[in-house]
Amino acid sequence: MTNYLDFERPLAEIEGKAEELRAMARQSEEMDIESEAAALDKKAADMLVDLYAKLTPWRKCQVARHPDRPHCKDYIQALFSEFTPLAGDRNFAEDLAVMGGLARLGDRPVMVIGHEKGHDTKSRIERNFGMARPEGYRKAIRLMELADKFGLPVISLVDTAGAYPGKGAEERGQSEAIARSTEKCLQLGVPMISVIIGEGGSGGAVAIAAANKVAMLEHSIYSVISPEGCASILWKNSEKMREAAEAMRLTAQDLHYLGVIDRIIGEPTGGAHRAREDAITSVGSALEAMLKEMDGMDRKALIKARRQKFLDMGARGLAA
């Protein structure tokens, strides 16, 4: 069953009518309504193209959060072979919101790290909806250090509303863990690539996304705060999230224009959740291309290029 978003309701009605006609035809062999159902299919396909050709920033937020969108675990299972998960921060606990381990992308050994939201009620609770605690970021640091030691490229898949703001997380040093993880990204002497596959929220995303190459899926978002949080602060009304999304420039298209990200990875018509395999394949191709772009760069060059990338963002902001 397709999970339709609010703005897809007209599409849901048309696709529902087509399915009703086919259900009636299955019950009665005398009914021939395939031509009518096919016409509805054509109308639905045209409407889908039209809807996704002009998504507003708020609608892109809805697509980025779609529950059927491929998550980190889906990408790892489909794109990487010989994945060996590594757990724990060797300090406090294992955080299931962050998963990672050794793997191969094609013939290339890599370290892959990512936020995992879960796919049903049980797994979402276990994964804390992809919102990592300090131990999650300390695990990420441990894995990045391991990759650096053995000369393995680091690939991070970002999909989080933000770091978990709970009392226990704050007591265990959430902000310090995020800062240390961001610092570790900038210190790596190996290639690092980050892909925003859904939501990229606040420091919780940047902590594993301060990379040489940062890409976003076409309908993903990347921002310092959620539109609802921004609206609550600026307008004292979370219902102003549509206006906040417009002002925040959080879409892949805006961020590519501003130089915050390096590449936009196209999604199938209707979003990654409608053709999951195609979306995952596109991400795999982009990862291989970005790694190839950094072939031959030595440790010093990688660190310098990564640091300069982020320094240039600030310089452009001051100039503007």
How does this model look, in words?
- It is a single chain.
- The protein has 320 residues and is of the alpha/beta class.
- The protein folds into 2 domains: 43 residues, no CATH class; 258 residues, 2-enoyl-CoA Hydratase, Chain A, domain 1 (Alpha-Beta Complex).
- It contains 14 helices and 8 strands.
- Strands 1, 2, 3, 4, 5, 6, 7 and 8 form an 8-stranded mixed β-sheet that branches.
- A hairpin with a 2-residue loop joins strand 2 and strand 3.
- It catalyses: N(6)-carboxybiotinyl-L-lysyl-[protein] + acetyl-CoA = N(6)-biotinyl-L-lysyl-[protein] + malonyl-CoA.
- It is found in: Cytoplasm.
- It holds the Pfam family ACCA.
- It comes from Pseudooceanicola antarcticus.
What topology emerges from the helices and strands here?
Blueprint (H helix, E strand, L loop, with lengths): L8 H19 L6 H20 L3 H8 L7 H8 E6 L12 E8 L2 E8 L5 H6 L7 H17 L3 E7 L6 H5 L2 H14 L4 E10 H5 L6 E5 L3 E3 L3 H8 L6 H8 L3 H7 L4 E3 L10 H18 L5 H21 L1
Parallel strand pairs: 3-4, 4-5, 5-6, 5-7, 6-8
Antiparallel strand pairs: 1-2, 2-3
Helix pairs in contact: 1-2, 4-13, 6-8, 10-11
Helix content: 40-55%
Q: Which fold name is given in CATH as the topology of the largest domain?
A: 2-enoyl-CoA Hydratase, Chain A, domain 1
Approximate strand percentage: 15-25%
Order of helices and strands: HHHHEEEHHEHHEHEEHHHEHH
Proper CATH architecture of the largest domain: Alpha-Beta Complex
Structural class, from secondary structure content? alpha/beta
Radius of gyration: 21 Å
Quantity of strands, as a count? 8
Shape: globular
Distance between the termini: 47 Å
Low-pLDDT segments: none
Helix run count: 14
What does the main sheet amount to? 8 strands, mixed
How many structural units, i.e. domains?
Answer: 2
Mean pLDDT across every amino acid position: 92
CATH superfamily of the largest domain: 2-enoyl-CoA Hydratase, Chain A, domain 1
Oligomeric state of the chains? single chain
CATH class of the largest domain: Alpha Beta
